[in-house]
Amino acid sequence: MQQKMKKVKITIQEDGEPKEIEIEVPDTGEGGWGDLSKNTYINRPHVRVDAVDKVTGRAKYTADIKLPGLLYGRILRSAHPRARINRIDATAAMALPGVKAVVLPGDDPAVFSRECRFAGQEIAAVAATTPEVAEDALHAIDVDYEVLPFVVDEDAARDPAAAQVHGDRGNVGEPRVGEQGDIAAGFAAADVTLEASYRCQVQSHIALETHGNVCQWEGDKLTVWASTQGVFSVRGELAGHFGIPETNVRVITEFMGGGFGAKFGARKEGVICALLARKAGAPVKLMLTRKEEHLATGNRPSAVQHVKLGATSDGKLVAYERSNYGTPGVAGSANIPGAPYLYEVPNYRIEQTSVFTNAGPMAAQRAPGHPQAAFAMESMMDEMAEALGMDPIDIRQMNDPNEARRNMVAMGAEHIGWKTRRSAMPNAGTGRIKTGMGVGSCRWGGGGGRTQAECTINPDGSVQVKCGTQDIGTGTLTLVHMVAAEEFGLKIEDIDVRIGDTNYPYSGGSGGSTTAASVSPAIKGTTMLAKLELFKKIAPRFGVEPGELVASDGNVFVGSDPSKSMTWQQATAQLGDEPIFFHGQWLPGYSDSGVPGVHFVEVSVDTETGLVKVDRVVAVHNSGMILNPLTWASQVNGGVLMGIGYGMYENRIMDPATGYMVNANLEDYKVMGSTDIPEIEILRYDEPERGVIGIGEPATIPTPASIANAIYNACGARIREMPFTPDKVLSALAAVKEG
Amino acid sequence: MADRKQKAAPEEPKAAQGNGGTRFTRRGFLKGAGAGAVTAAVAPAMLVSGARTASAQEAEGVMAGTVTLDVNGQTHNVEVEARTTLADALRDRLEITGPKVVCDRGECGACTVVMDGKLVFSCMTLAMDAQGRKIETVEGLADGDNLHPLQEAFIEKDALMCGFCTPGFLMSSKELLDANNNPTPEEVREGLSGNICRCGTYPHVFEAVMSAAEKMRKGG
Amino acid sequence: MRNFSYVNATSIEQVPSLLGRSWDDAVVMAGGTDLVGEMKDYAAVPKRVVNLKSIEGLDYIRQDDAGLRIGALTTLTDVLENSAVSQELPVLHQAVSVIASPQIRNMATLAGNILQRPRCWYYRSEDFPCLKKGGARCYAVGGVNTYHAIFGSGPSYIVHPSDAAPALMALGATVHVHGPRGGDEVLMDDFFTMPEMNIRRENILRPNEIVTEISIPKPEANSKGMYLKVRERESIDFALVSLAAQMTVVNGTCERASLVLGGVAPIPWRAVEAEDYLRGRRITEARAESAAEAAVEDAAPMPHNGYKVEIAKNLVKQAVRALAS
């Protein structure tokens, strides 16, 4: 019964340099999480530990923080898509009663530029005693602009004669090329070659809590409450900007109202908030408005993909060529995955570019680049299947190198009734409402690392775990409780968990579906090794080796003879007055990266109004070993729905004539509501031997593609441009009618 | 007209009774200001001039002052401007932060509160219009430590993720079930159609409301 | 939002004197769901806001032999839940049921709904000094006009956003107006004004006039009604196109058709050609088609909104078919 040990390599920092060392840790088997059937918490549904705070309104988000003497900050933004500020006069603003600070371009050239490159760029800021006065102050600032030519449309921006976004650098970035094999030979060998263009629009993140911070200075020490996906990234940026040690900056994120990829680093609004607080000598809260959120905090870049695909008559893909571009706005990259998405094609060439426009900059958004790539590839696969007279599933299975995904496709097809319920022919049936079924798949990386944690076991039996991760709504706080409680054989409520604060050990940002796979192994490793330290103190009492002891159900006992037992409190009392303190970190062997996912959808298309309704989604997902199936299912639902939103409703609309976003609100920028929600059935494809893998991103990727395929199956209209709004559906239907 | 108005106005602001008995009146306004713990000096734009006649003041209106808000059974005096919304008065002045401001235009439901028994958007309601009305927010949903069945069901079904929309969804759900404790799934969706969740918890919210309805029917 | 002075009106008679000669001086507020948004977006910057909710006795629904009288402060929820409305005026009941969300219906009034200002994204954004706000151009021309008008010839291409107005117009309702010289009554058909008549507003109301009541005549026996609304999103969305239809059909023959389209023109748009075509005709599939074609005969879509013509046509066809059967 002696616990087996194994050696693992970990990387530590020594004198600022990474160094690989080997340590010995308990061997907990393949996947790292032991016999799941014996678990109390891990792999079993558990409600969120912070749910009571959230349902009672007690949860205080950054937007809710109130401090004595708190001022309200607002940012003045460029009123033009491209302009130069000649003069800016804030005299009237500063004279308003209640205005306590104004910062202007000259105050911090690193934040403000006189060159405005998009409507919404930061140009000045104010702090006042009430939000109302702050708003008046913004309107009282007089800006004299030299208005310059602009371009907001990615197609227009590609024209060399177009207005230049960044001087004479050109609007089109360096092409990124990926190639393999010989595409000329590949296409020559193809029996069928198809070509088509697909367009994906820009999507806003729409975290319900807008970007924002509360900043408070005490001397050169700064405390920040931030609505962020990475407290340490905020700390680093602010310390760097203000030239103070990181130890002087504390960033706190206790409750956080959604991120989706756009909330990393202090960002301009964070730096501006700190600037205002320093200038006013008072704490400042600066939460962005919904309009600012749309204009300036990031978005998913557009993608225009010209795709050529060649296959042999039996359905084998032989050649793929893609040239694509998209706009990241003024900065960033619009690149999408640089190899044929999902399928094995021996010969391919991909060339892609980012096209700069005078619009707000992109930011990572839930599976960056993947929904766009999946939309084009999975649409094209259906078009190829049709051209070859094959079932769309058969052509996928033939070309998909991933065995798990092939199994998942089969699983979903069986569940939704692909063979029996799906119309064999597009546009079958009579009446104006036509129904259809479609499929789309995805892949995602994920993986973990970059997390440290501390565990203290006190002589009275109380246990505290600290980790500087943050819970952005994904259930991280609950996972930490679950892992620690499982390890000590205690109840969740017995563990005091602290997260969301840079005063705790480092953890990376919550993004890329890496949080669960980063945090849970770190907590597992830290608590496991802390427990071993405790066992070292107890083992002599039983005359056994530490590795022979087991902590379960509030007791510590000898594994081979459970009658040799003491309660947890009796065990920790052996510590005298010195607690066990263990600082640990992420360990390999408890997590993995790389997962497939598949969505099947059923839609109804009203052929007279062009309205599409997604009726049902069967989502098949794989997260290796699922830590908490309850919160995991919530993540899948959320991903599916964000994907439907992108496919069906959401669209950042820029007015090409004036360069403004015209729908920077939640009325014309349409986020789906309760009456738009389909039935969602989630199927799990478990691979517990792989350990923990994230789910946030994969669940959002394949939805638009599967909807497009279902629309085609329903009514015979192939829609190659998102979102699938009535105008596009009706014009595609008209094209079908005309043949 | 001024005379008529003065005669019509009672000495005391009308108590919170019946429809129209709780309207924000000039008199109620002054009374609130006098009785309030908050000093009037806070409001720089206070345009109350004692020299003016009542009718002139009425015609001019007020740009700022104190309102008395009855929130979850407690009354608060709060300094506001005419333009201050109920959402901002609750959140910034009273630190009742359950209602969230998300779209600030009546499109998302995060600021939903119940006013005189009706579900409303607090971001589209002027604080002065809420004078004397009975306001319920998510903070008043539980009975002390005893959670409302909806709160319990939201927890159990994981009907929340980041939680920012949750207070609004709970208030809409409560109104829905108060009016009909045996709703169809379609009625649940319709009743929640003024609330947006970006994390995408809708399926779990629907489950939670149905489950709470069942519990409430059983008298739970 | 710019601050303003807030006045509680206590009687209808008092209101005209509290209002001014210009919309910039003073505006009235009832539910506030439209006005507060307009003020937040600086589309409206009034010096004074006159609260009508403080007026007693304006929220009522009364039924008599002539029909229904609905007080101006009656909320949409009260209209929706009224049994006379749901039983006898399905077109109005259905129209109100698809307005916005429960919260909005609880706050907003029926009169406020027909007085809504445009939802045009150029009008609603502080960034655009458009014609409706006294500016020099309609940005929908040469801009993104996906949601704009397919009827009318400018100079503004807003659409009237109300769901209740087409229904009320289809029912032949009358608007009761109160101004400095007392009360007046105007048929819904004469209440709304095209941009060429008054670029700044959408109806005949002057700055110092208010709506006090909407009265709806009792529909003819044998008359049936329905409201169809097409919106991109089923939760809180304005109509891409809507249709209020009230038809009197006797033995398969249409005696009278009242068809009013929403979301397609600067005012609720009566499909006169379709109504004329249907009158006295026996309804067949082919005639439903012809009526639908007639309804959109005058449509002049903009570059991005041609799809609305197809939807409008199909809604007319669907309603004629459904009400004839």
Descriptive key words:
heterotrimer; A: 739 residues; alpha+beta; Aldehyde Oxidoreductase, domain 4; seven-stranded mixed β-sheet; five-stranded mixed β-sheet; 18 helices; B: 220 residues; DNA polymerase, domain 1; 2 domains
Helix-strand blueprint:
The complex is a heterotrimer of chains A (739), B (220) and C (325).
Chain A: E1 5-14, E2 17-26, H1 51-56, E3 71-77, E4 83-89, H2 91-95, E5 99-103, E6 115-116, E7 122-128, H3 131-140, E8 142-147, H4 154-157, E9 176-180, H5 183-189, E10 192-200, E11 203-204, E12 212-218, E13 221-226, H6 231-242, E14 249-252, H7 267-280, E15 284-287, H8 290-296, E16 299-300, E17 303-311, E18 317-329, E19 347-356, H9 370-388, H10 392-399, H11 403-416, H12 418-421, E20 433-446, E21 452-457, E22 463-466, H13 476-488, E23 495-498, H14 515-542, E24 549-552, E25 555-558, E26 561-567, H15 568-573, E27 580-585, E28 593-606, E29 612-621, H16 629-648, E30 679-684, H17 703-715, H18 726-738
Parallel strand pairs in A: 3-15, 13-14, 18-19, 22-23, 29-30
Antiparallel strand pairs in A: 1-2, 3-7, 4-6, 4-8, 5-7, 9-19, 10-17, 11-16, 12-13, 12-15, 17-18, 20-28, 21-22, 21-27, 24-25, 25-26, 28-29
Helix pairs in contact in A: 6-7, 9-10, 9-17, 13-14, 16-17
Chain B: H1 2-8, H2 26-35, H3 54-60, E1 64-71, E2 74-81, H4 86-93, E3 112-115, E4 118-121, E5 134-136, H5 149-156, H6 166-179, H7 185-191, H8 202-217
Helix pairs in contact in B: 5-8
Chain C: E1 5-8, H1 15-18, E2 26-29, H2 35-40, E3 48-51, E4 61-64, E5 67-71, H3 76-81, H4 83-88, H5 90-97, H6 102-107, H7 110-114, H8 121-124, H9 164-170, E6 174-179, E7 182-187, H10 188-191, E8 210-217, E9 223-230, E10 241-250, E11 253-262, E12 269-270, H11 272-278, H12 285-295, H13 307-324
Parallel strand pairs in C: 1-3, 2-3
Antiparallel strand pairs in C: 4-5, 5-8, 6-7, 6-8, 9-10, 10-11, 11-12
Helix pairs in contact in C: 5-9, 11-12, 12-13
